[in-house]
Amino acid sequence: MINKNLSLKIALLPVVVLVLLLSYNVIIYGDDALSGSNQFMLLLGASVAAIVGFSRQISYDTMIQKIAENLQSVTGALLILLFVGALAGTWLISGIIPAMIYYGLQILHPSIFLPACIFICAIISIATGSSWTTSATVGIALIGIGKVLGIPVGMVAGAVISGAYFGDKLSPLSDTTNLAPAMAGGNLFTHIRYMTLTTVPSILITLIVFFILSFTQSTTGNADIESLLITIKEKFTINLWLFLVPSIVIFLIVKKSPPLIALLIGTILGAIFALIFQSNILLEITESNILTPSVAYRGIIDAITVSTEINSNNPLLNDLFTSGGMKGMLDTIWLIICAMVFGGVMEAIGALDRISNALLNWAQSTFKLFASTVASCLAINLTASDQYLSIVIPGKMFAKAYEERKLAPENLSRTLEDSGTVTSVLIPWNTCGAYQSSVLGVGVDEYFIYAVFNWLSPFMTLIYAALDIKIKDLK
After folding, report:
1. Residue 225 — pLDDT band, cuts 50, 70, 90?
2. With helix as H, strand as E and coil as C, how does 7-61 read?
3. Do 93 and 305 contact (CB within 8 A), yes or no?
4. What are phi and psi of 308, to 5 degrees?
5. CA 279 to CA 299: how far, in whole Å?
6. Average pLDDT for residues 194-218, to the nearest whole number?
7. Which of 149, 145, 148, 119 is nearest to 134 (CA)?
8. Which residues contact 232 (CB under 8 A, 6 or more apart)?
């Protein structure tokens, strides 16, 4: 829908107002902005767009119809998010996630400490779907070990953050990894497969850099992670059979099974393995003494639907042994719904088409379109100070432009992640930068240069665009 009377300045007005509202909101609420206040700001931005529409004789019914179409387009993404929460719950109580952590920690050795930090954090972040949880648990432990070994904390923090964000990007359990294709109009697993094209080279270069850095460091102590391994072993039955479940899910993904089917099978298999291997965990979370069918049912369903906490004698592991279930995904789902309301009104009044046409007129080449996407993500990270918004706002603004240029939606979703998700941690006043620096006890200025993966990723996506490497056309 194109409103011929809508100037570019008026079309951008709701976006500018929204960015200002979100920026102030993040200043007030900080890390809690995703809990609801950001969502309301998106609705206020939609209200501003609606006022512009009413002034241009766009009917209320037209706006509601566009909102409904937008919400219909993300139905699959919303269901996937719910199943991701369910999967995380059963994979926790079945011991699959603890097993990944257990075997990942055993590769730690002083001579390859920095590359090992990347590898461990990547494994745990893939398993949990959260770079924040990885940094706040294993990341803190690795910073402490690095101090004992005499390695600069900025260097260790850079390795931790590089690995954590690599795993976060490729994990189907990650909210940002689900959010990007939802905004671009793509498919979750297609997005992940396509994202490996830029993400894997970036992490390989990062590993090479840290292997070189390892040769410049002389360690003075030992990496003692025995207490963590003992605690995991005490709480869970750990064995290699547990890896059968993620292997089946990966096989289904490779075979391009529908995401909902793959996630449902993974959830059910996780529940079955919980019954087989972790009966003590089911008793603990249900506060029962005997494992009856009703007790097992309640333990599994609670893990799928609501938050589950498994306590240990190690506070670092307690955060890792926590899952929000389907309920834990509601904040992200709420964000997507409100973003679709904003996007629907903007589309109804012709603002998105006006912005898209302006972008296409300026970005005469594919590279310029990618470059403007990267610049927009960085600008939102700098101004609105939130990684979710750096995906949501550019995602809605650029989706039409990529479609008009006959580019597949995964081009946009990959660029959103390469430039929005990973760079947020490099900005001190961004929620991610503030969180990581406070949790790890290392300033952004100290780890910035060592967070190689994070600042390399946007350059990698631009190189691919400039050289026309693996730029997928719209079918």
Report:
1. confident
2. CHHHHHHHHHHHHHHHHHHHHHHHHHHHHCHHHHHHHHHHHHHHHHHHHCCCCHH
3. no
4. -130, 130
5. 10
6. 92
7. 119
8. 98, 101, 102, 238, 317
The whole-angstrom distance between residue 253's C-alpha and the CA centroid of its chain comes to 18
Q: What is the pLDDT of residue 217?
A: 76
- pLDDT class of 220 with cuts at 50, 70, 90: low
391 burial level (CB within 10 Å; 0-12, 13-18, 19+): buried
pLDDT surpasses 70 at 96: yes
Q: Is the pLDDT of residue 148 over 70?
A: no
| Residue 55 amino acid letter | S
Averaged pLDDT for residues 194-214? 94
Structure tokens at 288: 């029962």
Structure-token pair, residue 230 = 């003992």
**Residue tagged 């049912």 (tokens):** 297
Mean pLDDT to the nearest integer, 225-244: 88
Nearest to 113 by CA among 222, 231, 204, 232: 222
Encoding tokens for residue 3?
Answer: 């409103």
- pLDDT, position 38: 83
Residue 63 to residues 5, 53, 353, 426, 447: CA-CA distances in angstroms? 17, 9, 15, 38, 46
pLDDT attached to residue 61: 93
Domain map of the chain by residue range? 8-64+346-466, 77-328
Cα 102 to Cα 37, 227, 273, 312, 317, distances in angstroms: 38, 11, 17, 14, 11
Please say whether the beta carbons of 114 and 210 come within 8 A. Answer: yes
Take residue 55 and report the two structure tokens written for it.
């002034």
